[in-house]
Each structure stands twice: as structure tokens, then as C-alpha cells.
Amino acid sequence: MNMAFSVIVPVYNRPDEVQELLESLSRQTDTAFETIIIDDGSSVPCSQICRRFEDRLNLRYFFKPNSGRSDTRNFGMKHACGNYFIIFDSDCIMPPDYIATVRKNLENSYVDCYGGPDCADVSFSGLQKAISYSMTSFFTTGGIRGGTRHADRFSPRSFNMGISKDVFLTVGGYRNMIGEDMDLSIRIRAAGYNTLLFRDAYVFHKRRMTFGKFFRQVKTFGQGRVLLHRIHKGSLKTVHLLPVFFVLGHLLLIVLSVIFMNGWFLFLPACYAALLFTDSLLKNGKPAIAIVSVAAAYTQLTGYGLGFMEEFLFRKTSKKTQEELYR
């Protein structure tokens, strides 16, 4: 199959991120692709940044009224010239062989939808490395953001995802909802296509976050998991409940330690924190990053668990549509 790649990136008020992303795309060893940047009604557009790369990339820039990232990705795919769409978030940076790696994987084992993992580059800040650890470690997420090779279980995420034009025309693209990329993955498999992890097609995910922003993000992930369950019965697995058990278990142990004035109730949380610290230290090599990694992991699991419980307990009987609740 002759694959013509279209790289599609939605942007909202992040011109500096687009600069780094386009720099990484301009250094690709495989240059046979087009790049489509869609400014989603930004008050700080990135048009001037894009102009700087017009002689280095096959680049097209669009500006449209704000309608959300799902509709913006669909807009990009509708205007793409290629027959295979590669979708990134604007805060991603690609290693020089990314396009070549994807092409090789598709030539060796073609699939109509793939996803790749994310990781932290050595140039990232300590907080960025810590958040990356919490999002990718086996001891926090179970490695579900790129830790399984099973096509029937892997759900690509839109920070690093590819779908064929045929899939887009058949399934209809993203829907405006929390967890839109997981919803799309489920609908792709339901339509008879496979999804597959390309483990070596990784990106550097340079999240510009504070702990407050990170908490709000992972909380929406927890809410999204409940919404997906309501739409796609059977999509909820035991592993998705672990952050809820984490929150309730820690709360119970803290209450017991206060009631009985006995610090031994906090032994298990201390052991878990020590495990996270040791694992992050082995991966990142710096005690300071390992300490922040523990805080990031607790932020992630707590935020996700609280978001899940809030959505399940307090919005279960809501008559409003998802668009009315979350737009």
C-alpha cells in the first residue's frame, strides 16, 4: 500500500509549543508527509510561527472558530491530502526517526489504527519528568499508556495516534466528549478494525503543567472513564477502579491511624511511596526527581479516583447530554 502521511495538530493558544513541534518535524529522516496545523480560535495564533517553516515542511495552516479539540482534529482530517493521518498534541516533540519508524511498522504489519507511547526527553524539567513517570509507570497506570502489545486491548491516545482515511470515513472521527480518543478506539474496533501499539514510535510529551493543572486533567480522565462505560457497556475493567480503591484505602488508613493513634496504619502507604521513589530513581537517576515523582503519582491517582467517584455518584442520574455538561 502506498502510504501518504498527513500529520494533524490542533492548537489553542500555544505558539511556543508549535515552534518546538515543527522543529522536530523539520528534522525527520523521512520527509514524505504533509503537516496540517489548525488554530482552534486562538487569541494568540501561531500563524507567524508556521510561516517560518514553510520552506522546510510541506505545511498548511488553518484558523477556525473555537469548537474544541475533537472537532478541530476532524477538521484537519477532512482537509488532509494523505490517506493515513498521524495525530499529535501540540505539546509533543518527535524524535528524528519517528515518521520512518511508523512507515516501517506499517509496511511490516499494516494496521488501520496505531498508537505509540510517550516519554520524557533528557532536556525536560524535573517536574515534567516526574509527571511523565507518573503517567507511564507500571506502578501507577499499569503501563496502559503503551505497556501492552495486545491489539484487542490497546487503546491509542490522541497525543500519538494514527488512523487510515478509510477508518475516518467509516467511523466518523472524534466526538465532543471527555475521553474522546478512547471512545474513538472502541468504535474503531467495533467497526471491525484492529488497533495496535507501535512501541518504538514514541514521542516526547512536554507537558507544561503545575500540580494544580495536572490534578484537574487527571480528574477529567476519571470522569471520562465513567462516561465511556455508560456509552460502551463492558468497557470498564477492574484496573480502572484501582485509583478509587487507592483513594478510599488511603482515607481509611489515615482515619484509623488518627482514631487509634497508631502510625503503623500508614506503613502500607509508606511502602508504596518508597517503591515509587526507588523506581523513579532508577529511571531518572536523580533523588529530587524521584521525590517529585511520588507527589505526581499521588496527584494522578487521587485526581483520577475522585473524578471517577464524582461522576459515578453525583451525575449518574443527570438528564443532560455530555455536550451540555462538559463543553
Q: Gap between N and C termini, in Å? A: 39 Å
Number of helices: 13
Cα-atom radius of gyration: 20 Å
Strand content: 5-15%
Helix content: 40-55%
Kindly state the number of beta strands: 10
Fold and architecture overview:
With 327 residues, the chain is α/β, with parallel strands linked by helices. The protein contains 13 helices and ten strands. It has helices at residues 15-26, 47-51, 69-78, 98-108, 126-136, 138-141, 165-171, 180-190, 211-231, 242-259, 267-284, 287-314, 322-326; strands at 5-11, 33-40, 58-64, 84-88, 92-93, 113-115, 118-119, 160-164, 195-197, 203-205. The strands form two sheets. A seven-stranded mixed sheet has the order 3-2-1-4-8-6-9. It has a three-stranded mixed sheet with strand order 5-10-7. β1 (5-11), α1 (15-26) and β2 (33-40) form a beta-alpha-beta unit. α5 crosses α12 and α11 (267-284) crosses α12. Residues 146-152 and 317-327 have low confidence and may be disordered.
